[in-house]
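agent> Task received from the user: take the single chain below, predict its 3D structure, and emit structure tokens. No templates, no multimer pairing.
agent> Plan: (1) validate residues, (2) run structure prediction, (3) serialize to tokens, (4) report one or two observations.
agent> Step 1 OK, no nonstandard residues flagged.
tool_call: predict_structure(input=
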Amino acid sequence: MASRIRLDLSTYNPDLQDGLQARIHDPLWMLGRQWQFGEFNGADAGSPAAAQVIVDTAAVTRYQPGPRSGPHPARSYAADSLALETLVEAEPVTDDSRLNWRLAAESGRHLLRLLEASRLGPTRAQWLASTYVCTAPTAEQAQQIDAASLSFIRVLAGRTIDGLRCASRVRALQANNNLNELFRDSPFDQVSEVDRQKLLGILTTWLTWLDSLFQQGASPSAWIPERMEYALSIAAKTAESEVVLTAPEYLDGRLDWFSFTTSSGNSLGAADNRTSLTDAFLPTPVSFRGMPSVRLWEFEDGAVNFASVQAAPQDLARLLLVKFALEYSNDWFLLPLELAVGTVSQIRALVVTNTFGERFLIPHASEVDGPTSPWRMFSLTNDTQKLLFLPPVLGPLLESQPVEDLSLLRDEMANVAWAVERIVESAAGRPLDRHEAYQETLEAQPPPPAADGDGAPLVYRLGTTVPDYWIPLLPVKDGNALRLKRGALPAFGEGGIQGLQLPKGRLLEPNRELLLFEEEIPREGARVTRTYQYARWIDGSTHLWIGRRKEPDRGEGSSGLQFDVAEKKDEGNS
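)
tool_result: status=success, residues=574
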């Protein structure tokens, strides 16, 4: 009987070397297919291998607050010492018209700690018997202070010293170079001759600490109350001429190169601070997540799949993104160039050497595509010098809750615009909800008298009242333009009109006339806030300041204001 033998192929092999080689057993067929697809056609397809750049940079040296054609003069500015947002936004934390009682008490307590640690200066009893002691507010002042702040102030009264008042006195004597006059005041007159110089050193240290707490804004300010936004200009001097960059509408709290436009007009007097840089480097291919891999056995990142992007024929931006990612992503190279912040730069020459050893002078995009070049990234409006502006602006920062929150809105039912102070800064330096404070005043008022019966007479009112934190904005003519003037409604009390409902925050400029431009209050309204900002600059220094923001609000509102109203006597105040 004959036996049969079957031969089976075994595909198991612990050595993967042959599979990884990806051998082609018919190379002529592969060459033929490459010839059919035109892959052998001659083309200059060398990749960048080296690059050299020549750059002229000019530092920003001048700063002008306010509009470009405004009256405020320009002043010197060093970008390496202070960020532009901090310079523009910083404003005084305290002023003569409103005292921050908490800061006054905290600064006074710190001065006492310094004096007690050194065992110099007046005793605590002598301080509390002097004119620098925190005193209780007068009856007139107490009427303008909320209940929480008033309780806080009464606790401090007579128990600590007013550091802000003491600092104001010392600064005035320093300005006149007459600090020795301080020892004629109580309680400094109790200090011995031996300890006076040491005491002056402690006071100087204390003032330095107090001044470094906040970045205080210098006058004049870049804030435009009529627009509720900032405006500023900066200048640098290039080899050709002075370049003035203007940010006419800075309102959202963040500056960048696109916030500025080149401006003509009077010079700001920029100093000549130019440098020339020549640098050689190796171009690096641009890479991003999900881009096609050029290696045979490498898989792309599965978190990004550009092939699955759904794009309609009219989605040009999405189609361009997909085409770049899938077809041209390996044709872009990164040329790293380090520049100092706060400079305008001109690329004088960019020479690229490819893998064939050929050298190419790369022209500017506007020279290739003409003045109407579609590529406008990093190009300044009205710029004729082809500048690259690297603004001295902040990165991440910390921002507090608003210490002042103002809503500008339209009331179609009452046919008037309103400025609603939702939150203001209290006398204790804390956010004060004006709606809650208004409700507390209503609860403190006596209830209206009860009606005599169903036949109670009607009471005619020329107009109803609105909450005291609703400030009217009245239309007035200013030449050919329409402005909204901040007005005031009467404040009613038990004896009739008790005064006017005036704003308590800083945004509505209570100490001067305010004429808002009518277009600054659109249908959606506007919200303006004041917040504390905290950030670190490039030299490692930290800065704390108060800045303002403007953004769209939630739409129109209703104050409930009505005119020519007849109501029963028991339905409202008599």
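agent> Step 4: summary for the user.
Residues 45-91+220-286+332-395 form one domain.
agent> Done.
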